[in-house]
Write a structure and sequence with these properties.
alpha+beta; elongated
Length: about 80
């Protein structure tokens, strides 16, 4: 039994084995490339977050290490001296 959705909240029945069905519109929108979720357990609640592939290359040029790292050996030497 599903009660009408109000502000993103749905009431769902849980079967004897602890299962319930994720809303189909949420699955279609959030579970695009993966069919896995993270279940975060808190006191009195569960939070379900879709597992998504993260593109870390967008952060490559954002780290400012305070020195040029074109010469890696020189960078390591200076980094560990500090």
């Amino acid at each position: 039994m599903v009660i009408k959705m109000i502000y993103g909240i749905e009431r769902k029945k849980v079967d004897e084995q602890g299962r319930f069905v994720l809303p189909s519109d949420w699955r279609a929108e959030e579970l695009k490339e993966s069919r896995e979720v993270f279940v975060i357990k808190g006191k009195g609640y569960l939070k379900i977050v879709p597992k998504k592939k993260v593109d870390l290359t967008r952060f490559f040029d954002s780290a400012d290490l305070g020195m040029n790292i074109e010469d890696w050996e020189e960078f390591e030497r200076r980094f560990y001296e500090q």
